[in-house]
Amino acid sequence: MTTLKLGRRALIGAAFAALSFGAPAMADGHKVLDSIHFLIPGGAGGGWDGTARGTGEALTGAGLVGTASYENMSGGGGGKAIGYLIENAESNHGTLMVNSTPIVIRSLTGVFPHNFRDLTLVAGTIGDYAAIVVGKDSPINSMADLLAAYDADPSATAIGGGSVPGGMDHLVAAMVMEAAGKDALGVKYIPYDAGGKAMAALLSGEIAALSTGFSEAVDLAKAGEVKIIGVTADERVAAAADAMTMKEQGIDTSFVNWRGFFGAPGLPADKVAMYQDALAKMYDTPEWEAVRARNGWVNIHNSGDDFRAFLEDQEKVIGDLMKKLGFL
Q1: Which residues touch 312 (CB under 8 Å, ≥6 apart)?
Q2: pLDDT at 1 over 90
Q3: DSSP one-letter code for 26
Q4: Burial (Cβ within 10 Å: 0-12, 13-18, ≥19) of residue 124
Q5: What is the pLDDT of residues 219-264, one digit of tens each?
Q6: SS3 of residue 16 by DSSP
Q7: Among residues 36, 13, 273, 21, which one has the least CA distance to residue 123?
Q8: Which of 36, 98, 169, 170 has a CB 3.0–4.6 Å from the CB of 211, allowing a cystine?
Q9: What are phi and psi of 142, to 5 degrees?
């Protein structure tokens, strides 16, 4: 059984939020921050982007934060944004960066020199399952169909993803195929920068299937562009109740990608506490529940030291799995 649980108490780092702390909280104690600036290490339409914008939508809609702004900074598998935040720490006390499992994977593989210990750990917020999808007109309708196509012609049954080789989408595809009894390293994986390019490849037939986050898969399925043929949850998820889990299809594997928020190194303790307070209060708002349910996210809240302990555990679990699969 291949199980990579990134959290019963996982974190959703999906945004570096720049927050202005100049104004005091409102008299009723409801408004925690005047503004937040989210630094997003990837392009528009990806999981980090959706997490940051969804979090900002909930925080501002609930009145916990006055205004939210967003900055997409792609490059280096997320490393460009991390490096920027570290190098410009003093001028970014108002910024929160979103991140997720790739900050662990890419530091293990040396894609970038930094890791989560180089940042201020604010809080993990959500979990997002992974999904395998195919184009709306594909003859493939289930994981059994995909496995049959792979058996018939492995080289013509490529799986794409929005992460680098050895990155999260690749890792998920490899885990699923290994759990299905295939050679994980024999799977042809093609990486794309952001969801739009991967979707174009799927619709053109360049790839047979796409490994992606569940919330992104739900959006694509609702738009009528894809069919979800497998989800890495233990049970079906209400946001796409017709989508079968891997386990239902005899593939004994599960995976949830945590997402959470990080601040610049050296962020003052009082500002860290304000970020953590705003995020903690967000969970009890109807605005957050609407965003969470729409995306099929799981609430996994870790803050401060709990976040650190969680990340250290994930670093070991993921590292062991990547060694097993030959990625390290």
Answers
A1: none
A2: no
A3: P
A4: buried
A5: 899 999 999 999 999 999 999 999 999 999 999 999 888 999 999 9
A6: strand
A7: 13
A8: 169
A9: -160, 170
